């Protein structure tokens, strides 16, 4: 079975929230693994770019008319995506570390599991480092 066929089968058989969770998990673990690296580290930069790509993709999906999430949650996640973008630039300039990005991802992962849905108020707290 080709990889494309396997991915298609997986997409048809698995809950989209679980797929999103696994993507967040892989990227978050990579961020954590390289969080203590110097800001010039190629491994850290790779993890940051993958995380940014995830958030940019998520934002594009959230802005689609057909997105079925509640408007308030969509708006909160879009706002959070801009916070991720800002923090990523700060980390890439050596002005901050990646710990807030990890915390943001972990909060979203909890919401995807249904253990602690990220409320707009909590997303604002996380985005501002609270």
Condensed summary:
The protein contains 6 helices and no strands. It is mostly helical and 130 residues long.
Structure in words:
The protein is mostly helical and 130 residues long. The protein has one domain. Helix content is 74%, strand content 0%. The chain is built from six helices and no strands. Helix 2 runs antiparallel to helix 3 and helix 4 packs parallel to helix 6. The protein is globular, with a radius of gyration of 15 Å. The termini are far apart. The model has no long low-confidence stretch (mean pLDDT 86).
Report how far the terminal alpha carbons are from each other: 47 Å
State the major sheet: none
Class based on secondary structure composition and strand pairing = mainly alpha
| Rg, alpha carbons | 15 Å
Beta-strand residue fraction: under 5%
Task: Kindly report the oligomeric state of this protein.
Answer: single chain
**Total number of helices:** 6
Element-by-element helix/strand order: HHHHHH
Q: Using DSSP, what is the number of strands?
A: 0
Taken together, the total number of domains comes to 1
Low-confidence stretches: none
Could you tell me the mean pLDDT?
86
Helicity range of the residues?
over 70%
Shape: globular
